[in-house]
Design goal:
This protein is α+β, with helices and mostly antiparallel strands. It has 4 helices and 10 strands. The relative contact order is 0.29.
Length: about 170
């Protein structure tokens, strides 16, 4: 059972797109606090379409196959799940409530970073890795404690999330 607030040590990475933090978080935590922002199209008055979201529709066959792999004795995911912390699913804006926002603290004396996930609110969009993560629903339940490497961007605007997803998956 995951208790909140949840804290994890992290490494700070600075690259041209921006700063992000690398940590390992248990699959169970991620399933509670992350969402997949599936690509949707809405029709406006006048006939124009508006696109929203960044992710492909999930493939259940792929989820089941990956879930079987997760249950095996040789399961491993060394590649990172990329997250956009403080993203809201309902309106695609950045969460502004300080009681629910994910945060990162820097202990200057020890040069150590700590990420805090304060609540189980779904406030982290999955930029890449949705099939890996959601495949845990098809895996053996004891695998929910499995730590997964995560790269976490804080307050990353939706257009940059979409650009990052498109670049990684092209």
């Amino acid at each position: 059972m995951i208790e909140f607030p949840y804290r994890a040590n992290a490494l700070k990475v600075e690259q041209p797109l921006g700063t992000y933090y690398v940590t390992a978080l248990p699959a169970e935590l991620l399933l509670n606090v992350c969402f997949s922002d599936r690509l949707r199209a809405y029709r406006e008055e006048g006939g124009a379409y508006i696109l929203s979201g960044t992710q492909r529709t999930m493939d259940e066959k792929r989820l089941k196959a990956t879930g079987s792999f997760i249950s095996r004795s040789d399961a491993a995911f060394p590649n990172s799940i990329i997250l956009a912390a403080n993203s809201r699913a309902e309106d695609e804006f950045v969460e502004d409530n300080n009681n629910t926002r994910w945060s990162v603290q820097h202990d200057v004396a020890q040069d150590r970073y700590t990420i805090t996930v304060p609540t189980k609110d779904k406030l982290s969009a999955i930029i890449d890795g949705q099939h890996r993560l959601f495949s845990f629903a098809y895996a053996s339940s004891e695998r929910l404690s499995m730590p997964l490497v995560c790269s976490i961007f804080f307050d990353l605007p939706k257009p940059y999330q979409a650009q990052l997803f498109a670049t990684i998956n092209s």
